Amino acid sequence: MAAPEFVYHNGKIVPWSDATLHAFSLAGKYGIGVFEGLRGYWNDEDEQLYLFRLAEHFKRYAFSQKAMRFDPGPSEEELTQAIFDLCKANNIRCSAHLRVSAFLTNEGDMVATGPVGTTITAIPRPSASQVKKGASAQISSWIRMPDNVMPARIKCNANYHNSRLASIQAKQDGYDLPILLNSRGKVSEGPTTCIFLVKDGRLITPDVASDILESITRQTVIEIAKEYLDLTTVERDVDRSELIAADEVFHCGTGAEIAPITTIDRLPVGDGQPGSLTTKLQEIYFSLVTGKDRNHPEWRTPVY
Ligand code: PMP
Fold it and tell me: Whose CA is nearest to atom 6 of ligand 1?
């Protein structure tokens, strides 16, 4: 990754190398922080960068901080202004990934609730090649941590230890990504994505009590499937073997967008090619996020 020139760090736009944190901070020692990953999409015709579903990201960011009992940080207005300033400082005029992080800078006791530091990055990032060609998945032998251990619903840094263990295993075993089951043996999610399957024209996804992050892309897929295709998504427990029986499987998230999963444990999903419903949902999604489709203007915050 080529580092961008500037970062927002604790109230100021600073050079990338100046956004530092003490190694003995609670963030450094225990990974005590929460974050949001969001995407900006460049629209050539409008000469505009649209931030996708900023309001929903702020809502989840506030929930994560509340659940972690953080002292209040900058307001949504301040964060929005900081994002705008940062995109302009880095002259972001292409699709980009942004990360807004709140973390404890305190160098003391783990029960401290502040001070809360804030860092925002904005980095150019095109779609991954897997969006078109699909991905191979492994059902991980690691399980998603249960809600009464470390809630997956909180988007906290330390949860990514679980995602990372499963991802490393999948990579070393020759797969693109892991799919984690939960402690009840039901399908949970990918390391940074939610899972959908298509069976006999029905769209199915693990429900929000399946130890998943309540994904904004997942919610978007549910909404566009209903609105554009008149398909109601079934949210329920999903068995592992349903993934093998499915006609199509895809995963979705801000970073990964909507990407087909074409094999699971080396078995082809359906005919082993990206599925037609997956492709249709991708088309609708990309038109909306880029603003080519003008529906849902409330989902696109213009930066310029
Ligand atoms: N699950 C996990 C564990 C994630 O990290 C992410 C990425 N934020 C998702 C699902 C997808 O969430 P979203 O669509 O809000 O990016």
Answer: 192
The CATH class of 6-124 is alpha beta
What residues does 257 pair with on adjacent strands?
A: 253
Range 231-235 average pLDDT: 98
Whether residue 155 lies in the annotated active site:
yes
Beta bridge partners of 7: 14
Kindly tell me if the per-residue pLDDT of 108 is higher than 90: no
Over residues 9-23, the mean pLDDT reads 97
CATH 3.30.470.10 in the chain, residue ranges = 6-124
Which residue among the candidates 155, 186, 199, 280 is catalytic per the annotation? 155
Q: Measured between alpha carbons, how far is 53 from 56 in angstroms, rounded to an integer? A: 5
Question: Ligand 1: distance of its center to the CA of 296 in Å?
Answer: 21
Instruction: For 247-288, write each residue's pLDDT tens digit.
Output: 999 999 999 999 999 999 999 999 999 999 999 999 999 999
Pocket of ligand 1 (CB under 6 A): 37, 163, 189, 192-194, 213, 215-218, 253-254
- ipTM of the complex in this document: 0.99
Q: Which residue has the tokens 């402690």?
A: 183
Q: Ligand 1 test: best mutation among 53, 125, 193, most atoms within 8 Å of CB?
A: 193
User: What superfamily does domain 130-290 belong to in CATH?
Assistant: D-amino Acid Aminotransferase, subunit A, domain 2 (3.20.10.10)
Q: What are phi and psi of 264, to 5 degrees?
A: -130, 125
